[in-house]
Amino acid sequence: MKLPISTLYFISLLTFFSMTASAESLQRTIVTSGQGEVSVVPDMAELNMELRAINKDSNKAKRELDKQFNQLLDELALLNIQKKAIIASSLQLTPQYDYATKTREFVGYRAVRKITITINELEQLNQVMDTALGTGIDQLGRVNLKVADETSHQKQARQQAIDQSKVIAKELAMAYGARLGSIVQINYQGSDIQYPQPRMKHQRSEMMMADADIGVYLHDTIKFNDRISVIFELLVKE
């Protein structure tokens, strides 16, 4: 069925006004973004290490490892490092072979225990490392620098991003003779934390013997970053 010309004209007119209204609505918005960054000096550390032992008797290899670990616990207790700050739940026991000859030769069982120590006072890091090495730790691994209250610093960075997006939007609107209306859309772009790695500098102490060196750790700051994008309605004077 064919529609009358007047009806078709009316529909076209409605479509035109609808598209015009949508275009004006899109044109009368402003999109801004904000970034926040908070730099914090680390106040704690997480030290990873390994205990290793090898023996042709698997039980003896394990007992040797247990002995070293118990000695480590005793020494750390003297530094006020409590057991709840130590994780050592895994134990690996694997046979080892020497392939130097044509026929492989059984060397023994290698026992490995991974240990993670949380150090709540960063000044103790070097002392804990020395203590671990003194009790037979074979390998000192990664040191993760941390800060106790991460949540509050991340919130602070997020608030900086929000405030910056508002300030920029307001300044731009005023520059064009307009003002901000309600929020149309918020696009949260995420957050991240940049952890530094400790850098060690050997420093000679005049109070120590001439051949003695003290390990001094120089730490970068931990950076909390946050990003946000927001669309405001733009109110223009007619």
Biggest sheet character:
5 strands, antiparallel
Helix content: 25-40%
Strand tally is: 10
Task: Give the CATH topology of the largest domain.
Answer: Alpha-Beta Plaits
Distance between the termini: 44 Å
Shape: elongated
Question: Strand fraction band?
Answer: 35-45%
Structural class: alpha+beta
Q: What's the architecture of the largest domain in CATH terms?
A: 2-Layer Sandwich
Q: Helical stretch count?
A: 4
Calculate the mean pLDDT score and round it. Answer: 82
Question: What is the highest CATH level, the class of the largest domain?
Answer: Alpha Beta
The CATH homologous superfamily of the largest domain is called Protein of unknown function (DUF541), domain 2
Number of self-contained structural domains: 2
Q: What would you report as the Rg, rounded to the nearest angstrom? A: 32 Å
SSE topology string: HEEHEEEHEHEEEE
Could you list the spans in which at least 5 consecutive residues all have pLDDT below 50?
Answer: 7-14, 200-212
Summarize the structure.
The chain has 238 residues and is α+β, with helices and mostly antiparallel strands. The chain is built from four helices and ten strands.
